[in-house]
Amino acid sequence: MSALDLHADLVELASAPAPMAPSAALREMAYRADAWTPQESDRLRVLFAADAALADIAAEIGRGRAAVAERVTLFGLRRNSARPWTEFDDAELVRRYGSDPTAAIASHLGRSCAAVYARAGFLDLTDVNPPDWTGWEDAQLVEGYRRGVPLRQLGTLIGRPLGGISSRAGLLGIVHAHHPPCWSAEETARALELAEAGHRYHAIMAMMVAEGFPERTIRGFGPAIRKLGYGRGWGRPWSAEEDALLTRAYAQGLSLTPLKQQLGRSTGSLRHRADYLQLRGSHANRNGWRLGPDWTEADERTMREDYGRLPTKALAAKLGRTKAAITSRANSLGLVHGYIRPFTDTETQALCIAFRTGISIADLAAALGRKPMSLSKYATKHGFQFGRRPRHTITLEALLSAEPVPAAGR
Questions:
Q1: Do 220 and 270 belong together in one domain?
Q2: What is the pTM (predicted TM-score) of this model?
Q3: Band of the pLDDT at 409, cuts 50, 70, 90?
Q4: Taking CA atoms, which of 38, 97, 407, 408 is between 20 and 30 Å from 228?
């Protein structure tokens, strides 16, 4: 974890209590019997920090739940609650989600923005037009940019997408501590927006050039966008709602991109959690999200028989797969390619006989199921210089049983 990564339980970078309403000149006013006392406020802070439910805090202090929630917002208190969601919490979330900023809802419910996003997804709530930014969100954005906090983490903390984060920063005139020196704010915002939509770096670069942005190389584009913190999580514990969303995505064959955006998780984080939960997709491929066809016992038998003997390209065509799939499966099966598998005593004996009997390197390689170049290097290393020789088809068995004859072409 980088020194710039946020702590897993962090809920705010800078304190920003709700602004007090402007008041007129002080004047004498009657004492209110229901006014909050300093002791009640202190007790509220202690119980809130201890992750007590708002209803329990209200009962202990002798106040209404709405009054406690209002006081929490007024003090700017925030926490990453691990308490189960109640029916009241869900009702408030359904009522306010999409109309109020996620940060405001999180503050009112005493939860983190990531928890609100996860619960909203679990309840199948949909986003509408993004609400106006609050002072608390702006304060976190300014402080996060000053510290150089990775943008993915900052977006999860605030409860805003990457595109919204970058656009708001441009309006506020702030620059991220790791902002590429030759990039404009508009270029950064567009690159993050396209990356968040799931486009690959090469496609993003081509689209941005078509839109009039400067042409970048992959060596410059990739490190620049990653240095801003695109795609990085920071080791937050998984909640029950997040596990439920991931399980449902695998069960229904849904895209994982919305989960990466809303939960602030990286692709690796989703993959490792899916492995931990032993999730598999519901589509035709039993092995989850891999796009290729499933490997059958017959396919694996062919791999064991032909890998390293047939060219990888030919073996891929034979099995109807890509070369990368062949290599990956060979690694998982523990197969060793002909280029690197050690020579046996029988092969070394065949090499000596072939050298004495005038067999060419190409014919010997075919008999041994080796690459001619690999065999030639091995022969040279052992002092055999074959030179040019006529081609003859020969099997390994016939070669081992052959009588020595004068070598041809020497």
A1: no
A2: 0.53
A3: very low
A4: 97
